[in-house]
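Open question from group meeting: does this chain pack into something compact, or does most of it stay loose? Before anyone orders reagents, we agreed to write out a predicted structure and look at it together. Recording both the input and the output here so the notebook holds the full record.
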Amino acid sequence: MTDTPTPAPAPTTGPAPTGVSTELRTAVAAAIGTEPTAIAPDDNLVHLGLGSLEMMRLATRWRRDGRPVSFRTLAADPTLTAWQRHLDTLTPAPAPGQEPA
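Structure tokens returned:
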């Protein structure tokens, strides 16, 4: 029996992809009228039926929740993976009348 060398894993660039939260998947699924499990993390949400109006509503909802999301950022890469990566980088804005942490 001969030992077969195992190839080294391919090098990765950048941070490891984050998982997509249930909250994000559910919000997007509701906006396009489908089941959350029907959306793959890298599916183009526009191709699945997410229009600009729904995208704007999601951005507005997240801004109200304290996340400074912009429509432009969402439209630039309309996938769950990209949106989750972006949401993970945001610090919620302080509520009106509250001091920043």
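Observations to bring back to the group:
The chain has a mean pLDDT of 82.
The chain is about 40% helix and 0% strand.
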